[in-house]
C-alpha cells in the first residue's frame, strides 16, 4: 500500500491586518467580511474532496477558515499550534514603512532573509520557524498514510512548505504567490514533500484575492 499522504494546504481568509499590510504573527486577528466570504468559497470548492482529517493553526483566522471547510466535509477541526504563523515579536502589528523608519538595520536583515535573524521581543528566526512548521505538517501527514488531509495555516507556513517541496533555500527570493484562501496541493512520502499544484484561486473568481507580499 502506498504510504504517501495527500495534503491540501490552504492559507486563511483575509483579515483587516492583511488589508492594512500589518504583520500579524501570533496576534489573534479575526477574518474580515471578505475573509469570511473567502472561507465559504474555499469550503465549497473542497466539498467533494475525499478528506480524512482537517487540521488548522489554533489562531482564529486559520481555525475559522478551517471550520467552514469542516462543516462541508462533516468533520471536526483539529488545531495544532505548530501550524501558527512565524512569531514576529515587536514587529507584530506594524506596517513596513514604520518599521523601516524605526529599525532600518533589523529590516535590512529581514529583507536579506538571514536564517538566524529573529525579530526582537520574542520573534522566531526563519530557521526555527521552518523547522517548526514543516515538521508539524510532516508529523500530521504521517498520521494518515495513504490518506488525505487539509491543513489550514498562514502565508509564512505555506511559503516554507513550498520551499521544502521544491527544494529551494530558505534564503531564495520568493517568486510564488501566497493568496488568501487559495488551494495548494502537495504529497508527503518517504522522500519528503513534493509539489502537485499551487495557488489555485479559481473558486475565488468572484472575489479579489489579497496576495501576501514578500
Q: What is the element layout, followed by pairings?
A:
Blueprint: E1 5-11, H1 16-20, H2 33-45, E2 53-56, H3 60-73, E3 77-79, H4 96-102, H5 104-111, H6 126-142, E4 148-153, H7 155-166, E5 183-189, E6 192-200
Parallel strand pairs: 1-4, 2-3, 2-4
Antiparallel strand pairs: 1-5, 5-6
Helix pairs in contact: 2-3, 4-5, 6-7
The major sheet is characterized as:
6 strands, mixed
CA radius of gyration is: 16 Å
**Unreliable runs, pLDDT <50, ≥5 residues?**
none
Distance between the termini: 40 Å
CATH architecture: 3-Layer(aba) Sandwich
CATH class designation: Alpha Beta
Tally of DSSP helical segments? 7
Strand order of the largest sheet: 3-2-4-1-5-6
- Structural class category: alpha/beta
Report the order of strands and helices.
EHHEHEHHHEHEE
Calculate the mean pLDDT score and round it: 95
Quote the beta fraction: 15-25%
CATH topology: Rossmann fold
Give the tally of β-strands: 6
Number of domains: 1
As a percent range, the share of helical residues equals: 25-40%
CATH level-four homologous superfamily name: Phosphoglycerate mutase-like
Shape: globular
Description:
- The chain is of the alpha/beta class and 214 residues long.
- A hairpin with a 2-residue loop joins strand 5 and strand 6.
- Strands 3-2-4-1-5-6 form a six-stranded mixed sheet, sandwiched between helices.
- It has one domain: Phosphoglycerate mutase-like (Rossmann fold, 3-Layer(aba) Sandwich).
- The mean pLDDT is 95.
- Helix 2 packs parallel to helix 3, helix 4 crosses helix 5 and helix 6 crosses helix 7.
Amino acid at each position: 500500500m502506498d504510504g504517501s499522504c495527500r495534503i491540501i494546504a490552504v492559507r486563511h481568509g483575509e483579515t483587516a491586518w492583511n488589508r492594512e499590510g500589518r504583520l500579524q504573527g501570533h496576534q489573534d486577528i479575526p477574518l474580515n467580511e471578505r475573509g469570511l466570504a473567502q472561507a465559504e468559497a474555499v469550503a465549497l470548492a473542497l466539498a467533494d474532496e475525499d478528506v480524512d482529517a482537517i487540521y488548522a493553526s489554533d489562531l482564529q483566522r486559520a481555525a475559522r477558515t478551517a471550520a467552514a471547510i469542516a462543516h462541508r466535509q462533516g468533520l471536526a477541526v483539529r488545531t495544532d499550534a505548530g501550524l501558527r504563523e512565524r512569531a514576529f515579536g515587536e514587529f507584530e502589528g506594524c506596517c513596513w514603512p514604520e518599521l523601516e523608519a524605526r529599525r532600518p538595520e533589523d529590516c535590512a536583515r529581514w529583507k536579506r532573509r538571514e536564517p538566524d535573524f529573529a525579530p526582537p521581543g520574542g520573534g522566531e528566526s526563519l530557521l526555527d520557524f521552518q523547522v517548526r512548521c514543516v515538521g508539524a505538517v510532516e508529523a500530521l501527514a504521517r498520521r494518515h498514510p495513504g490518506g488525505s488531509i487539509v491543513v489550514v495555516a498562514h502565508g509564512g507556513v505555506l511559503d516554507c512548505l513550498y520551499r521544502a517541496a521544491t527544494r529551494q533555500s530558505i534564503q531564495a527570493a520568493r517568486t510564488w504567490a501566497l493568496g488568501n484562501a487559495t488551494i495548494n496541493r502537495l504529497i508527503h512520502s518517504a522522500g519528503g514533500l513534493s509539489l502537485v499544484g499551487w495557488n489555485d484561486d479559481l473558486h475565488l473568481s468572484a472575489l479579489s484575492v489579497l496576495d501576501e507580499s514578500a
